[in-house]
Design a protein that fits this description.
This protein is mostly helical. It has 9 helices and no strands.
């Protein structure tokens, strides 16, 4: 493994340790305000290291945001849904996912719905970027209603992405997240085919 690969793995482990510490303390304390010093101590990092990873305690609780690929291409894929699936998989990226951390965050969000609301802000930003990309694809495909078609397609894609995420969590990571998301997009395609045949 290259030095860059080792550094990236160490960075992911440190980030996960900080997030886990913040979430555990939030559960133990019953609030979303564990002191940064306590988070850093539990994660076995310095407060300075904490701030190298997360600008605020809230960011550590919410977790690292998904990033929309800057070079997302509206022309990729056989059709609009293929393009959105490809882009959704790129949004997930090559992150190593820690199912236990995800379940811990879900427990905290159940106790503190305001944390869920913050997480949804991140999802909404991705959704809006998918809408814009889907509109561009709809124009390329010659749609006479690219905004409407793009919005509907992007919302379907966000639903498939979320369903794939839930499938992956529910199945204890028995399949990769990418495979779970692909399976949900395949199910969307089957549903559309069945609706057309009726």
């Amino acid at each position: 493994m290259t030095d860059d690969g080792l550094r990236a793995r160490k960075r992911r482990r440190t980030s996960a340790a900080i997030q886990r510490a913040a979430l555990e303390l939030a559960l133990e304390r019953g609030d979303l305000h564990p002191p940064v010093d306590a988070i850093a101590e539990r994660a076995d990092v310095s407060p300075r290291t904490f701030f190298n990873y997360f600008p605020t305690r809230d960011e550590a609780l919410v977790g690292e945001p998904m990033r929309f690929p800057e070079d997302a291409d509206p022309a990729v894929g056989a059709d609009l849904l293929d393009m959105l699936e490809t882009t959704a998989l790129r949004v997930l990226g090559d992150r190593e996912l820690d199912r236990d951390l995800i379940l811990l965050r879900r427990d905290v969000m159940r106790q503190h719905p305001e944390l869920f609301a913050r997480r949804m802000v991140q999802s909404h930003e991705i959704e809006q970027q998918l809408v814009r990309l889907a509109e561009r694809r709809a124009r390329l495909d010659g749609s006479d209603r690219p905004h409407e078609r793009g919005r509907i397609a992007a919302l379907i894609a966000m639903g498939a992405l979320r369903a794939g995420w839930m499938r992956w969590v529910d199945r204890a990571g028995a399949e990769s997240l990418d495979d779970a998301v692909r399976a949900t997009f395949d199910e969307v395609r089957r549903m559309v085919r069945e609706a057309v045949q009726v």
